[in-house]
Structure formats: structure tokens, C-alpha cells
Design brief:
- The structure holds two protein chains of two kinds.
- Chain A is an alpha/beta fold.
- Chain A contains four helices and eight strands; from the N terminus they run βαβαββαβββαβ.
- In chain A, strand 2 (33-37), helix 2 (41-57) and strand 3 (63-65) form a beta-alpha-beta unit.
- Chain A is globular, with a radius of gyration of 16 Å.
- Chain B has helices at 12-28, 54-65, 86-96, 110-116, 135-150, 174-185, 214-221, 244-251, 255-260, 281-284, 291-310, and strands spanning 43-48, 69-74, 100-105, 123-129, 163-167, 189-193, 209-211, 225-228, 266-268.
- Chain B is globular.
- Classes of the chains: A alpha/beta, B alpha/beta.
- At the A-B interface, helix 3 of A face helix 1 of B.
Chain lengths: 182, 315
């Protein structure tokens, strides 16, 4: 089993900084933005993007989390998952530009579930998607608006994202599962 | 988790996981849109061989909030009254497409038989069996108590060191049993209080202290919570105490006893209450009574139980 680090701490910081600028560029004004991270690692990424956005724009950008467990379409295929809390900022999401934040974009099914979860919580003016890594293999017509790194990968490979607050280290890597591996 | 049959078999981690999922379910019940798509396409059958309004309605609400199809089945006037066996009834329900069977039965152990016999592949949730267990009631009680004590910081925590009095008919009460197992695995200290005739034989083996005197128990234990049990008149086929007035006088939570409780102690009751008998209105209507919170928590708890048993493929 070969493990290869693709993004180091400095690369990740640069990618997040660039995404923050791109979000500001695309938004008509920072006042309408709300960031929602998808647990687990999307929440930490959203927090960090929120800090950067607030720093660059001078406007406090609300950050929350959006758990999608109860909206997944694979609940019967996977071992039961414990849901994580959903925190919607006091400002709400109605009429705002919601930026969903996740670590890895793969099949697109998590984002599909997130869009359904959002519908039950309110009616945003627009929904955008920011991911740290896009590894391809989409199974649904979903595309990200902001990408840290495009990482073409084989389906047998595993992409892992480690973040300072959750894992103690900061890196993105690929683990290629050899045939005998499982 | 395939089935939920008892709290006695739950580990501390499992119990806390169910309570934490209940927190998430409770959070969704604060929203404008309370319905989740989680169990879409699944069928939940409420199979009640005993009368129950609140448990059945609570399970029904929980299943509907999770988008399951619900069939409620009271056995009165059904083929069960014509002599159909539990096996045939359950297999018929599965043939109709039941994924989860919520079973209430007057025989202790009926849900376990249904779950372990191999008659059906559906999940079984015990909604009260004889004098054995009523796990979702205990879970909702523990959830309510944990919320009262730890508030928003409840997640991941047990009830370590919390002192609880369970008062009344311990002998016939499945609620008392389920609560005792669950509370002790969560770290609480339980004292059972009741007339000697309503304390079961062999209680020394239970993880609890026993008292026959409510006033003394209130004074010495200084409880954080008092759970009053309903006196189950329908199970009283012998003289367990001389008269209702004597019971109310000795083991009822009167206004005077309520005043003697520590100021922070909460009063719990699984309902339906017999006011003026085991509980006074002063206690039942005070802000320290959790009776209605328990009902609300019941829906979230049952959502959690349905979610954890009805989802999950190859684990």
C-alpha cells in the first residue's frame, strides 16, 4: 500500500486563501454570504474560510454546519452512521448566498443530500460549493464552484484529508490500495 | 443495532450513542419542516396487544417524521382475537412488507421471541412487554434528565453521580426495570422506594438501594430526580396495600413531600398520572415537573431508535 502526500500545510493554506478570494469575487457583496461546513472536516474548513473571508472583506461572515446523514441515499448500504449536529447561524439562510464547504468531492451524493437538507431549512438566493479536493468520478450532475486542488484518481485509491484541529497534522494524500489490500 | 429489546443489554457507549442521536433528532424537531426523508419507503407496523395511547401515538409520530409508512394495528377485533398466534401475525405483517415491528405485549419476553425465533427478518422494537422492560421509556427519561442536568452540553455524557428515586409499584413496573438498568449503566445511583408488597423478590441482586419509607429516602438520599410510577390498577389482582388513601399518604408525592425535596430536584412521571394518588397537582404542575418534556422527548427518542434499527446494511 503506497501512501503519497499531495498537498502539504503551505499548499493547503494557499489553496484556502485563494478560495476565500474567489468566493468574495463571485459574491456580489460579502454581506449576503453564509458558509455551511459538512461534517466532519468540512466544518473545520468552513470555520477557516470564514475567518479568512472576515479578514479580507472586513465583514463578519456567518459560519455554520450542515449534517446530511438523515438525507443520504446509502443508509441501507453502509453501517449505521451517527448524525452530527447542524448549526445554522442566527442570520438564517433565507435569501442569502450559501456556500457549502466539504473536504473531498467524489460521487456528488453527499452534496445531493446537502441540497435536500438545505431545502428543509429555508430558501437561499443561491447555493455554491467549495471543496478542498475534487477527485472526479461524479455519479450525479453536480460540479464545484471553488476547488482547492483537482486530483484525478482511480476509484481504488483513497484520498485522505488531515486538518490541524481534527487530526493534529495538515496534509492531503493518496493511498493506493494494492490488489491484496483491504 | 438490529433490534431494541431491553436496556439491560446496552453498554454505556451504546446507551450514550442512542441519547446523542436523540439530541440530533430533537434538534430537527425545532425546525419549521420537521419531516426527514430518512426512512422513506420503509414500513413500520405498530403491533399492540395491550392498550396504549401515548406510546403508540409517540411511535406513530416518530415514524411519520422520518417519512416511513405506518400501519397501526390494535389486536382487538382483529384475527388475533380469533386465536391467531404471534408467529402467524408477525409473518403476515412481514408478508405485507413490514421492515420494523413495534411490539407491545402482555407477556414478558414476547419481543425477544419475535426477534430471535427466525420467523421474520424485520427489526423488532420493544414497546413494553409484561413486567419485563420498556426500553424507549427509559431512554426518553434518561434523555430528559440529562438535558435538565447538562443542558446544551449533554452530548457524550452519562448521568454519573446523579441520585434518582424510583417510587411506587416496582413489582409490576417494566418502566422501573428499564430505568434501573439504563440509569445504572449511565452511572446514576438509584434508590427504589415502595411498599414491601410491591418490591420484587430477589431485589438484592439489582444495582439499587431499597427503601420502604419515602420521607426517609427523600431526607437521606437528597435526590436529583424523583420518578413516580403509575399505580397500575389493572395489574392489581391482589391486595398489595390496604387502601388507595393509605398508599397516597405513605408513598404519594404530596405537596408537603414535594416541598421537602432539594430545590433543584426534578419530578418525573411516565404518564398517565393519577393525580391526588401517586402524585399531587402541586408537584405535577410545577416548573420542576418534566412530564410534558418527557412526552416531547419520547418522539425524538423513538425517532432515534427507529433510525438506528432500520438503517445500516452490512455492518
Amino acid at each position: 500500500m503506497a501512501v503519497r502526500t499531495v498537498l502539504h500545510q503551505a499548499d493547503m493554506t494557499r489553496a484556502l486563501t485563494r478560495i476565500a478570494h474567489e468566493i468574495l469575487e463571485a459574491a456580489r457583496g460579502p454581506e449576503s454570504l453564509v458558509l455551511l461546513g459538512i461534517p466532519t472536516r468540512g466544518v473545520e474548513l468552513a470555520d477557516r474560510l470564514g475567518t479568512l473571508l472576515t479578514e479580507f472583506s472586513g465583514v463578519e461572515v456567518p459560519v455554520g454546519s450542515l449534517d446530511v446523514t438523515m438525507y443520504r441515499d446509502d443508509l441501507d448500504r453502509q453501517p449505521t452512521r451517527g448524525p452530527a449536529p447542524t448549526r445554522i447561524p442566527d442570520s438564517g439562510i433565507d435569501g442569502r448566498t450559501v456556500v457549502l464547504v466539504d473536504d473531498v468531492l467524489y460521487s456528488g451524493r453527499t452534496i445531493r443530500a446537502a441540497l435536500d437538507a438545505l431545502t428543509d431549512l429555508g430558501r437561499p438566493a443561491a447555493v455554491r460549493l467549495a471543496v478542498l479536493v475534487d477527485r472526479g468520478h461524479r455519479q450525479l450532475p453536480i460540479r464545484p464552484d471553488f476547488v482547492g486542488k483537482n486530483l484525478p484518481s482511480a476509484a481504488s485509491e483513497r484520498i485522505y484529508v488531515r486538518l490541524a484541529a481534527t487530526d493534529g497534522v495538515e496534509e492531503v494524500g493518496i493511498e493506493s490500495g494494492s490488489e491484496g489490500d483491504e | 443495532m438490529r433490534h431494541l429489546l431491553s436496556t439491560k443489554t446496552l453498554s454505556r457507549d451504546e446507551a450514550i450513542q442512542i441519547l446523542d442521536v436523540t439530541e440530533d433528532m430533537a434538534a430537527t424537531q425545532q425546525r419549521e419542516v420537521k419531516k426527514l426523508p430518512t426512512l422513506r419507503g420503509k414500513t413500520v407496523v405498530n403491533l399492540f396487544f395491550e392498550d396504549s395511547t401515548r406510546t403508540r401515538i409517540s411511535f406513530e409520530a416518530a415514524a411519520k417524521r422520518l417519512s416511513a409508512d405506518v400501519i397501526s394495528f390494535a389486536t382487538k377485533g382483529s384475527s388475533v382475537s380469533k386465536g391467531e398466534s404471534l408467529q402467524d401475525t408477525a409473518q403476515t405483517l412481514e408478508a405485507i412488507g413490514a421492515d420494523v415491528i413495534v411490539l407491545r405485549h402482555s407477556m414478558s419476553g414476547a419481543p425477544a421471541v419475535l426477534a430471535e425465533s427466525g420467523w421474520i427478518s424485520a427489526s423488532v422494537l420493544n414497546a413494553g412487554d409484561g413486567t419485563h422492560e420498556h426500553p424507549t421509556q427509559a431512554l426518553l427519561d434518561a434523555f430528559t434528565l440529562r438535558r435538565r442536568i447538562h443542558g446544551d452540553a449533554s452530548r457524550g455524557r452519562g448521568l454519573d453521580g446523579v441520585r434518582v428515586l424510583i417510587v411506587g409499584d416496582i413489582l409490576h413496573s417494566r418502566v422501573a426495570r428499564s430505568n434501573l438498568w439504563l440509569l445504572s449503566v449511565l452511572g446514576a445511583e438509584v434508590t427504589l422506594v415502595g411498599p414491601p408488597t410491591l418490591i420484587p423478590f430477589g431485589i438484592e441482586a439489582w444495582p439499587a438501594t431499597v427503601s420502604y419509607d419515602l420521607d426517609e429516602a427523600i431526607a437521606t438520599v437528597r435526590p436529583d430526580a424523583v420518578m413516580m410510577l403509575r399505580v397500575q390498577r389493572e395489574r392489581m389482582n391482589a391486595a398489595f396495600f390496604p387502601s388507595e388513601r393509605e398508599y397516597a399518604g405513605l408513598w404519594g408525592l404530596s405537596a408537603a413531600r414535594f416541598a421537602a425535596l432539594p430545590e433543584t430536584a426534578v419530578v418525573m412521571h411516565p404518564g398517565p398520572m393519577n393525580r391526588g394518588f401517586e402524585i399531587s397537582s402541586a408537584a405535577a404542575d410545577s416548573s420542576r415537573s418534566t412530564v410534558l418534556e418527557q412526552v416531547t422527548a419520547g418522539v425524538s427518542t423513538r425517532m432515534a431508535a427507529l433510525y438506528l434499527t432500520a438503517t445500516g446494511g452490512a455492518a
